[in-house]
Amino acid sequence: MSVVTAQIAPTGQQNTEALVNAVPAPPTLLTVSGLGWLTVAALVIGLPDEQMVDRTGLLATLLACAGAAQLLLWAGSHVAPVLAHAGKWARWFVALAVMITAWELATAKFNVLPLPFFASPQAFIAVYTDDFPRLFDCLWHSLLLLSEGYFLGAAVGFVSGVALGWSTSVGYWAHPILRLVGPLPATAWIPIAFFIFPSSAAASVFLIALATWFPTTVLTWSGVASVQTAYYDVARTLGANQRCLVLRVAIPAALPSVFVGLFMGLGSSFAVLVVAEMLGVKSGLGWYLQWSQGWGAYANMYADLFVMALMCSTLITLLFKLRDRTLAWQKGLVQW
Amino acid sequence: MVSVSSELERPQAAAAPTREAAGAALRIQDVSHGFVLHNELLPVLDDITMCAEPGEFVALLGPSGCGKSTLLRLVAGLDRPRQGRLLVDGEVIAGADPSRVVVFQDPTLFPWLSVWRNAAFGLQARGVLKQHRSRVDDVLSLVGLTEFARVYPYQLSGGMAQRASLARALVNDPRLLILDEPLGKLDSLTRLAMQGELTRLWRQRGFTVLMVTHDVEEALLLAQRVVVFSDRPARIRADLYVDLEYPRRRDHPEILRLRREALGLLGLEKNW
Ligand SMILES: Nc1ncnc2c1ncn2[C@@H]1O[C@H](COP(=O)(O)OP(=O)(O)O)[C@@H](O)[C@H]1O
Ligand SMILES: [Mg+2]
Prior knowledge:
- Chain A: Keywords: Cell membrane, Membrane, Transmembrane, Transmembrane helix, Transport.
- Chain A is an all-alpha fold.
- Chain A is built from 13 helices and no strands.
- Chain A has 2 domains: 16-122; 132-326, MetI-like fold (Orthogonal Bundle).
- In chain A, 78% of the residues lie in helices and 0% in strands.
- The structure holds adenosine-5'-diphosphate and magnesium ion.
- The site of adenosine-5'-diphosphate (ADP) has 13 residues of chain B, from strand 1, strand 2 and helix 2.
């Protein structure tokens, strides 16, 4: 054993060196991007505004802060090499500086893009400073509505999927209904839902739940149905009863497929959320979109879209994290 | 792998509990079985009658596809025979039971459970894991997987997975161990080591073993009796007694003689 260790020791040291070297050197591109952002800040404050805009000062300050932060990261990475990992985003920082400059010049500075439809960066930022309470309230209500509908739909979808996959008699009755009704987009139920349900909030929850339910149930079902019989055989010879076969074999084996269903369900629940909010609720990101369009407040629309994108992306990321934890036993998972 | 054998005898012998149930007696009476394929009955087992005494090591040898696995599934209680009866200790086999565990050719570990959880599955399924947690540790050290207890199956080599699968079976203290080509897919070195371990375990614990193998030499080195089957539908061609001490040498004249005989029964003597 010790001989073996002695033999591999030098290689091991080389590997350690390689690892140390693998920590990126202080990324010089960060200085370029940092100075770039500072330049953009100077441009913003230096050039006169052609359009009527507030918050030019705030925009310049934010840009300058971002530029300074990049320079600090670069300087700090000499002391704490961990910070050097930020270097991998340096090219993005440069590209963003270019894009923001183009955007600022085309709108606020030279008024190339006509005003009501295209908002300048300042106007975009002004939405968050001036209309924050309303926007935050909308985000909160959207999250509330979405989670009610999504969890309901996912829970019912999971249970019905397991039942469909496990019990032939449930499958016999539910399969034709599922085949006929399931593929209908949930939005097709809107007229009926708003008519049947006592409140538009309840109708919206129902629609979101429905949109989540279908992919979840179909993929849970197919996951349970395609579990290798060998696992059941092994479990049975080890003394498992029906309950144990479902809970400890069928469901865990089906989980990868269940997660595919949950992802698809989340995607379609976003779509339904926006539509439902445009139709029936008085607060929510979808409602805000329509409300700001009614006022011709395009900057508000863009700001709202940005929040929406952040929300959806965060939720998808959370689901990915949950999946990666739950399915740690699978190799070769896609990293998000 | 190597360290296991030395580790195996001492602590285990000391800890070997007296609860050790002796092996079960297996009786297979006039069993015929088949499958319906394209509306026709495909006969697979034809009037099989054989038995295994308590604690006996019986190997089943036969051409591929003759029905050996089918017979094992009947003994395990996973399927019912179309005709005939199978009895364990005088009682008709009515279903799967942890006293008759199967180790399949593929390890079929549950990929979502760690090695330890896999080994504990039988105890957990019967709701007795709390009282017997140490048994899981014992059996994992017996097969040399203590260090890999927390690892998921995809991180195991083929030989380790097969040992984990053996551990999962042994945890239940089986009275009849059913092995379906358990070493078939292993490389030859791992295979030799596991053959040794298997005989040691069997002699130490005293359970009855019913093992299918396609390797004539393996059957003769491990088993006390070798039952040779014909082509499908399987019939018993011969019942060879291997009356030799363990550990056996593969160049023992009696082994060589029986090997010629078995190969002859399988219609392969010219190839040897
Ligand atoms: N579930 C099944 N359905 C139909 N035919 C089967 C089934 N299981 C096994 N057979 C057939 O029975 C025969 C014997 O199979 P098996 O017992 O697996 O052979 P082996 O002796 O190689 O283990 C094969 O011809 C196989 O095709
Ligand atoms: Mg077989």
